[in-house]
Design goal:
The chain has 304 residues and is α+β, with helices and mostly antiparallel strands. The protein has three helices and 18 strands.
Length: 304
């Protein structure tokens, strides 16, 4: 006869009491042993909770207004602190959250820290498209990983007036030169105009002046116009350095056709053969002429 045994899930504390050979009843166990057992049980419960947390996959393409969860991939053991940055740059200006969990300069108010050090972005816009880098300080050292998201823009993009002129959304300019971006769309009532650089606010007003372009100012700019009726967004304009002009390649020198050169006995033999051939030809011509003259004389003698 088969017996079916079913077991109900038990709390780790109950399991530990059943397995532990120590009696933790009051009055029979020293205080330090109680503290040790309590810490061990709390650690086991915490680890079991962490192992049950959901792991969200990275979303590549989103629509505006959606939310995205960027998890920390890989092993979560030994992680001491977690910090997030916008883009590939881990400089303080690109920090979204510091290792202490505090908002950084690149925090827009729509980001929040999720479980296990993950990053949650709410109400994403097209400006949130790009890369996000997480830096982990672990017991074994420092490691980082980069996530990428792309947000489809559901708004009609407005053109910008630029100097120098943008070609297909790209301005090519040398360093230390001036660049001007200007909003030209009329709105009623008058809008509030704000500019972003790689998704980070960088200025206000109708025009954005970059008086002396530097390496740090190379990137993508957008303008957001907001009034009481609607919000308009400009086309993204990327400022980059001019592409290097390809130098014309020099034509490879062509080697002259090889000529037949003879020396020594071969040259002498060829020369002698040439002379004999020429002599034979001349002799043949002379013989033909003499023979023709004799034939003519014999005809003349017969006729006379």
């Amino acid at each position: 006869m088969l017996l079916e045994v079913t077991s109900e899930p038990t709390c780790p504390w109950t399991e530990y009491k059943m397995r532990s050979p120590l009696d933790i009843s009051s009055g029979h166990t020293p205080a330090w042993r109680k503290l040790l057992l309590t810490g061990t049980l709390l650690t086991s419960c915490t680890c079991s909770v962490f192992s049950e947390l959901p792991f969200s996959a990275q979303l590549n393409i989103l629509t505006e207004g959606a939310s995205v969860h960027l998890p920390v991939t890989g092993s979560l053991e030994g992680i001491l602190t977690t910090s997030w940055f916008r883009g590939y740059d881990t400089q303080p200006a690109a920090m979204i959250f510091s290792p202490e969990g505090l908002p950084g300069p690149a925090h827009t108010g729509r980001e929040m820290l999720g479980t296990q050090g993950s990053l949650v972005l709410r109400n994403v816009t097209a400006q949130d498209s790009g890369s996000y880098t997480v830096v982990l300080e672990t017991s074994r050292g420092r490691r980082s990983a980069t996530k990428q998201i792309h947000v489809k823009n559901s708004l009609q993009l407005m053109p910008l007036k630029t100097f120098p002129a943008a070609i297909r959304g790209v301005i090519q300019s040398e360093l230390n030169y001036s660049v001007i971006l200007q909003w030209v769309v009329t709105m009623d009532p008058e809008p509030v105009l704000s500019w972003t650089f790689n998704g980070v606010p960088c200025g206000m007003g109708e025009k954005l002046f970059i008086r002396r372009l530097s390496w740090e100012q190379l990137g993508t700019y957008m303008c957001i116009a907001t009034n009481s009726k609607k919000q308009l967004v400009s086309e993204p304009v990327t400022i980059s350095l001019p592409e290097p002009i390809a130098q014309p390649t020099e034509a490879e020198p062509m080697e002259p056709d090889p000529t037949l050169s003879l020396s020594g006995g071969s040259a002498i033999g060829l020369l002698v053969a040439g002379i004999l051939g020429a002599g034979t030809l001349i002799a043949g011509v002379c013989f033909t002429i003499i023979q023709s003259l004799r034939t003519d004389r014999q005809r003349i003698g017969i006729c006379s």
